[in-house]
Write a structure and sequence with these properties.
Length: 171
């Protein structure tokens, strides 16, 4: 199974994220825009996992010192890529969020996961392979306190990328 660990949002926050996505789409020539049900904040991407690795990921999640983080979304930005940019809603680097992500990745590495080494930059993907003349922009901050961490499975079902929570932990 292809797995990642994420924070998911209430319908109210997803609605506001969809508004940002639609604003971006209206300014774009083309792109692959995130489905409403796939809007999330990744804490760690695990990749292909077998049953042993899945159990190790669950164990790492439940061992984390968990203080529900306040997620504040405050800007729209992009990562430049050949073949179209990745556009995202930026999340403030609140201490509780950064501590959660750091503790989680340390435990996952100790369990044998080979995770990305680059600095964590919290963001919520709005679109991939996006071609637009738009520039990143600031927004009126919004957000919520997220009280559960979820182990997500990523798979293609009937041609659609689908994310399904297979384990949740509320600390």
């Amino acid at each position: 199974m292809r797995l990642f660990i994420a924070l998911n949002f209430t319908d109210e926050i997803k609605s506001r994220l969809l508004s940002l996505r639609e604003n971006l789409r209206a300014q774009s020539q083309r792109g692959n825009f995130s489905l409403p049900e796939n809007l999330h904040l990744t804490l760690a991407f695990l990749g292909e996992c077998d049953a042993r690795q899945t159990a190790a990921a669950k164990q790492a999640m439940t061992a984390v010192a968990f203080t529900p983080p306040e997620i504040t979304i405050d800007r729209v930005g992009r990562f430049r890529r050949d073949g179209g940019d990745i556009w995202w809603a930026g999340v403030s680097e609140a201490p509780a969020l950064m501590a959660l992500q750091r503790d989680l990745t340390e435990r996952l590495r100790a369990a044998g996961f080979a995770l990305e080494q680059r600095r964590y930059s919290p963001h919520i993907p709005l679109g991939r392979e996006v071609f637009t003349d738009a520039a990143p922009w600031a927004i009126e901050p919004f957000g919520e306190t997220v009280s559960r961490v979820e182990l997500m499975k990523s798979e293609r079902m009937q041609g659609r990328l689908t994310y399904t929570a297979i384990f949740a932990w509320e600390g």
